[in-house]
Amino acid sequence: MNSRHLLCSVAIILVSVLMAGSTHAERKRLSKPSERHFEVQPKQVYVGLKLTGGMVTGEIADKTDAAGGTFSDKLWYGVALDGDYFVRPHLAAGASVEMGWKVVKGGESPDIKLYSYALHTLYRFNPLGKRSVYLRPEIGLIKGTEPIENGDDKDLGSHTFLRFGLGDWLCTGPTTLINIEVYYKYAFSKDAKLFGYSDVDATGLGVDIGFKKGF
Fold first, then answer.
1. What angle do CA 6, 102, 186 make, to 5 degrees?
2. What separation in angstroms does the CA of 20 have from each of 14, 15, 112?
3. The whole model's pTM is what?
4. How much of the chain is helix, strand and coil, in % rounded to 5?
5. Mind listing the domains of the chain with CATH numbers?
6. Residue whose C-alpha is closest to residue 120's, from 175, 46, 192
7. Distance separating alpha carbons of residues 30 and 25, to the nearest angstrom
8. pLDDT tens-digit series, residues 78-112
9. In a 3-state reduction of DSSP, which class is residue 59?
């Protein structure tokens, strides 16, 4: 297992643990008098980093199975810089830049590299609270490169994608937060092996965990 696949495994385990333990951690945190009474200071701009990981679904998943692929052949993972600008306490416009990798042949072959640039809107249902569910639709471009035998990268082109997320916005201090988001992604990429196969659009389900600070 190479270092990138180790990073993928660690990130997926971290996300799973944090999702499972978020409620317990919140109760434990609120039980401490020194931390229970902090006041949220709403900010107009939030910037941070996020880890992301997911797996392909639909026709690409079927093609992977038909080719004898393993579970890991369906995975992607990455890291992103993410920001929000709130035009209203509950409504923001934002942008993100992401670099990721799609696993190929169980790690025996170099991963496909993925680069994404996207714009999104974010709607918080409880904008002034310490915790809020939010919706996040997104549109962007995803570009892929595939390593080939001579050491160069084959350009897989740029493709439009849509993404729809449902998340949990949890304030950890007056101007800091953690957000966990589950999302569905659809890339219009029939003409390229963006996620390992051509002739079908790339679809998948994923999870983000992000850390942000307000300014």
1. 135
2. 10, 9, 30
3. 0.82
4. 20, 50, 25
5. 3-214 (2.40.160.20)
6. 46
7. 9
8. 999 999 999 999 999 999 999 999 988 766 678 89
9. helix
